[in-house]
Amino acid sequence: MARKTTTDDPLAPVTLAVGQEELLLDRAVQQVVAAARAADADTDVRDLTPDALQPGTLAELTSPSLFAERKVVVVRNAQDLSADTIKDVKGYLGAPAEEITLVLLHAGGAKGKGLLDAARKAGAREVACPKMTKPADRLAFVRSEFRGTGRSATPEACQALVDAIGSDLRELASAVSQLAADVEGTIDEAVVARYYTGRAEASSFTVADRAVEGRAAEALEALRWAVATGVAPVLITSALAQGVRAIGKLASAPRGARPGDLARELGMPPWKIDRVRQQMRGWSADGVAVALRAVAEADAGVKGGGDDPEYALEKAVVTIARAARSGRS
């Protein structure tokens, strides 16, 4: 490469984020963007999908600028790039441009392995973003999240949190952040139990599932029980957001695709594809847009933008449930 870098430098000419864990991939991008904007607040960030990176596009984005601006070019799902575009990227790897950081997000499988190998051979900084399928991996993740907040949590508390939340890393990260913000001193099992008592019966995901299915009364009942039993409001808004986004993702996916293919494309497990397919009946594109706005308003409400977080959640649940019926005749 044209510039000598260290493997831990987020401003290395090329960063290669490898894996299928969406949260970790997003964090890899955020780290590079934050470092670039710390160096230059006017950094231009281009976040591209394979269909937006046509042959010649990379050359245009990385060509010298009269203003010598710093730029971050993010390429998602790099394994899906066309053969001609892959040639462009490989050519760029040998002579990266000054003041430009290229971030390649690659699933890490056999597809597009030539690009993966070329980036590694060129000395790209690599960030591992593997799916955390084992409970032990998720437990280690929670411990790391608590360390990152500078807070102390007992091993029993970490295990209790994994048991309560499940396998979703965004939910786990959000829970750690909430506990760290709300609780003083060491976070122990009793604290986790206080926040998540009754979660098995009325989890944030139960609220979200009933809402996106258009079952307003049941969603409100689950919501009120969840709030009464100590489920943190921020976890409910997170679950609502995930539920609506899943509807939007699947609605825009190719029709007739197999669940396994969709799972890889959308980053959902196959069982969730089947569930979302059932939930999306009755949704329209306008309904998804309305629901996303409702979630954003509720999120602001529970994070201090409103006087009554519970009312903000109830309003969002009702709006989402109505939106779930917007496509029905």
TrEMBL record:
GO molecular function: DNA-directed DNA polymerase activity
Stored InterPro entries: DNA_pol3_clamp-load_cplx_C, DNA_pol3_delta-like_C, DNA_pol3_delta_N, DNA_polIII_delta, P-loop_NTPase
Catalytic activity of the protein: DNA(n) + a 2'-deoxyribonucleoside 5'-triphosphate = DNA(n+1) + diphosphate
Domain DNA polymerase III delta subunit-like C-terminal: start-end pairs: 202-318
Domain called DNA polymerase III delta N-terminal: residue spans: 17-107
Regions annotated as coiled coil: none
Pfam families in the cross-refs: DNA_pol3_delta, DNA_pol3_delta_C
Protein family (similarity comment): Belongs to the DNA polymerase HolA subunit family.
Protein name (record): DNA polymerase III subunit delta
